From TrEMBL:
<protein>
    <recommendedName>
        <fullName>Inositol-tetrakisphosphate 1-kinase</fullName>
        <ecNumber>2.7.1.134</ecNumber>
    </recommendedName>
</protein>
<keyword id="KW-0479">Metal-binding</keyword>
<dbReference type="Pfam" id="PF05770">
    <property type="entry name" value="Ins134_P3_kin"/>
</dbReference>
<comment type="subunit">
    <text>Monomer.</text>
</comment>
<keyword id="KW-0067">ATP-binding</keyword>
<dbReference type="InterPro" id="IPR041429">
    <property type="entry name" value="ITPK1_N"/>
</dbReference>
<dbReference type="InterPro" id="IPR008656">
    <property type="entry name" value="Inositol_tetrakis-P_1-kinase"/>
</dbReference>
<keyword id="KW-0808">Transferase</keyword>
<feature type="domain" description="Inositol 1,3,4-trisphosphate 5/6-kinase ATP-grasp">
    <location>
        <begin position="124"/>
        <end position="252"/>
    </location>
</feature>
<keyword id="KW-0460">Magnesium</keyword>
<keyword id="KW-0418">Kinase</keyword>
<comment type="similarity">
    <text>Belongs to the ITPK1 family.</text>
</comment>
<dbReference type="InterPro" id="IPR040464">
    <property type="entry name" value="InsP(3)kin_ATP-grasp"/>
</dbReference>
<keyword id="KW-0547">Nucleotide-binding</keyword>
<feature type="domain" description="Inositol-tetrakisphosphate 1-kinase N-terminal">
    <location>
        <begin position="22"/>
        <end position="101"/>
    </location>
</feature>
<comment type="function">
    <text>Kinase that can phosphorylate various inositol polyphosphate such as Ins(3,4,5,6)P4 or Ins(1,3,4)P3.</text>
</comment>
<dbReference type="Pfam" id="PF17927">
    <property type="entry name" value="Ins134_P3_kin_N"/>
</dbReference>
């Protein structure tokens, strides 16, 4: 670590007059590790913002005072603690209040807002993969899939999307009968070939960040004929799978628009469709949109 580590940096004079904000956070240790990087804490400190861990062994109201509560916790008890805290401290900004994100923690309801969008096909179309929710009884999955007319292969995803490791345990199924091995409740989505590249869009207010990531490769008819069974696959499109600087075949370089964590989705979608969105990626990548996590 260089002698002038980020911790020794003093806020510059103009910052010293700055209003100080305190963010109380309730995150899993994994999330703290991935999110609260020293660089972020240093940048925040230089802008008058400090992050303070919330102690789950003490009443939340005895802690702080906080200007913002940042959390990524679930569970009835925590929801109740947070709701009671919000009643007592209405001026504290609680990010992701439980009721506001409930529909995002279900892989069916999170897509409903996109499926319901009636956006004109301007320079692309917006859609979601054809999918089927299986609440229980794995033995009847093959019949349900046949009746729904879903095309193989299928991507199987836990219905609950609460940020737990289990909620990211995805599988790909090459034949219907192997589907009986799956563990409901789950969503079965038709696999959409997209050239092995997808875009993730992160939006908070006016701030938009588009990143390109490697994804699952296309599944050919030959793959389908030569594969059978259900296979768990790892997390393929996380930060380490960046394709931003990859030299991609032009036919692939923007084929599919996929995973959107959008806090103000409709404006974002319309700006893309209307061609008014001025960002790095060529408009033509707005060719075949599949929305999985459009967080509106
Ligand atoms: N219907 C689909 N067709 C093709 N590929 C898909 C489909 N659904 C998911 N994938 C692939 O699986 C990856 C993970 O899917 P998804 O984003 O739904 O799960 P997740 O657990 O929320 O992912 P993340 O690890 O990015 O949070 C996607 O990045 C994509 O590569
Ligand atoms: O592409 P990245 O790695 O940023 O994907 C994120 C994803 O957008 C979500 O933020 C995940 O958070 P959860 O929904 O809480 O799981 C991140 O998962 P994490 O377990 O790595 O925090 C993904 O990395």
């Amino acid at each position: 670590m260089s002698p002038c580590s980020i911790q020794t940096l003093q806020p510059s004079p103009q910052h010293q007059q700055q209003r100080q904000y305190v963010v109380g956070y309730a995150l899993t240790s994994k999330k703290v590790k991935s999110f609260l990087q020293p660089k972020l804490e240093g940048l925040a400190r230089n802008n008058g913002i400090s992050f303070v861990p919330i102690d789950h062994n003490r009443p939340l109201s005895d802690q702080g005072p906080f200007d913002v509560v940042l959390h990524k916790m679930t569970g009835r008890e925590w929801r109740q603690i947070l709701e009671e805290y919000r009643q007592i401290h209405p001026k504290v900004l609680v990010l992701d209040p439980p009721d506001a994100i409930k529909r995002l923690q279900n892989r069916q309801s999170m897509l409903q807002c996109v499926a319901d969008m009636n956006l004109s096909e301007f320079c692309g179309k917006v859609g979601v993969p054809r999918q089927l929710v299986i609440q229980r009884d794995a033995s009847s999955i093959p019949d349900f899939v046949a009746k729904a007319g879903l095309r193989l292969p299928l991507v199987a995803k836990p219905l609950v999307n609460d940020g737990s490791a289990k909620s990211h345990e995805l599988s790909i199924a090459y034949d219907r009968f192997s589907l009986q091995k799956l563990e409901p409740p789950l969503v079965l989505q038709e696999f959409v070939n997209h050239g092995g590249v997808l875009f993730k869009v992160f939006i908070v207010g006016e701030a938009i960040k588009v990143v390109r990531r490697f994804s699952l490769p296309n599944v050919t008819k030959r793959d389908l004929l030569s594969n059978a069974g259900v296979y768990r696959f790892p997390r393929v499109s996380c930060a380490a799978a960046s394709a931003d600087d990859a030299d991609l075949d032009p036919s692939v370089a923007g084929m599919m628009f996929y995973h959107v964590t959008v806090f103000e989705g409709t404006q974002f979608i319309e700006s893309f469709l209307l061609g008014t969105y001025s960002k790095d990626y060529p408009k033509n990548f707005v060719k075949d949109w599949i929305w999985e996590n459009a967080w509106v």
